[in-house]
Design a protein that fits this description.
By secondary structure, the protein is of the alpha/beta class. The protein is built from ten helices and six strands, in the order H-H-H-H-H-E-H-E-H-E-E-H-E-H-H-E.
């Protein structure tokens, strides 16, 4: 297991007003709506989530970095757990010749409105029980999904990720390193259920038998 940051450049490109998030609207109500992962979360008002999640090519650098770092070969089978609208998976098809991409997400709306080029390869489902064979994929990754799990969902999901991947694996989660980052995370998040520091995440990974890499984003 190693720390590898693939998402920092994308995360830091977004400006955030943490205090405004909790004083301008009813934060609890917004979180309840966001937790349904429906239209409001993806394409509704900013208070409920993305405020409109459209393809703009920003994930290309992440796909290219992962392909290079893990030396993925043409035709590799790739799985995204928590794929959302499939934007990053689409970038893999552009960054790697013959990439065979698959994705799964709990959001029916996200899958129904995914990028059309990869939509046929996406499924609605829960990461606690992945509908794939053992060792099916050459590379498995998950970006900003595992922190949305309850603690009783975390271990089986990690074990499932380990089961379906025969090659490298990577998880990126939201985390915090100090009290200021913890407060900002609490202010900003809408769907996070696992609030843990990096060392706690590493402990959870080890307990579940996950041997892949990980990265985390913080709210400074």
């Amino acid at each position: 297991m190693a720390f590898v940051d693939f998402v920092g450049i994308v995360h830091k490109s977004t400006k955030r007003d943490y205090v405004q998030r909790v004083v301008e609207h009813d934060k609890a109500e917004c979180a309840e709506v966001a937790g349904q992962f429906g239209k409001d979360y993806w394409d509704g008002d900013r208070r409920y989530g993305f405020g409109g999640y459209y393809y703009d090519g920003r994930w290309r650098v992440v796909a290219e970095a992962m392909v290079a770092h893990y030396n993925l070969q043409p035709g590799a089978k790739i799985l995204d757990i928590g794929c959302g609208k499939g934007f990053l998976l689409y970038e893999f098809t552009q960054a790697l010749e013959g990439a065979q991409v698959s994705g799964i997400d709990i959001s029916e709306y996200g899958i129904e409105n995914a990028k059309e080029e990869v939509r046929p390869n996406l499924k609605v489902g829960n990461c606690t029980t992945l509908p794939y064979d053992d060792d099916e994929f050459d590379f498995v990754f998950s970006i900003n999904t595992f922190h949305n799990l309850f603690n009783y969902e975390l271990y089986p999901s990690l074990q499932e990720m380990q089961r379906v991947g025969r090659g490298p694996k990577h998880i990126t989660i939201e985390s915090y390193r100090n009290e200021r980052e913890k407060a900002n995370l609490l202010y900003w998040q809408l769907t996070c259920r696992a609030f843990m520091m990096p060392a706690e995440w590493e402990f959870a990974f080890q307990q579940a038998g996950y041997d892949g890499d990980y990265g985390y984003i913080t709210f400074e």
